[in-house]
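Entry for the shared binder. Reason: the reviewer on the internal report wants the predicted structure included alongside the sequence.
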Amino acid sequence: MLSKEDFQFSLEMKVRDYECDMQGIVNNSVYQNYMEHTRHEFIQTMGLNFAKLCEEDIIVVVARIEIAFKNSLVSNDTFVSSVKVKKEGIKYIFEQAIFNKKNAQVIATGKVTTVARIGGKLMHAEVIDKAIQCLNKK
């Protein structure tokens, strides 16, 4: 069974009223925002900074997003958004999951594929590769 311990980083958050739709559940598009915020926080813990990468002409972009919705969150639910990263060729794959904190129920899972464009070409970003290697040694 999937749990937050299967991931390299987790972030606790709380559902805000305006994120819910007419049915009283979190709108499907909001889960992607939760996952993106978690990835950005995770990347910062790896010692990477998007602004600095851009200054070095390393542009990291999302190439593909897949999200599977399993259950729903409602207003004021507290949840844990988790992520891990691996490298496949020139792609950086982020596997993610969102868990309801009160019962550890899986709410959504996701797979986000990103690539780095350096000088206009898709290629390995050594600074990212090194950060992933350091993370995997822990």
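Summary line for the report: The beta strands are 9-14, 58-69, 78-88, 91-100, 106-118, 121-122.
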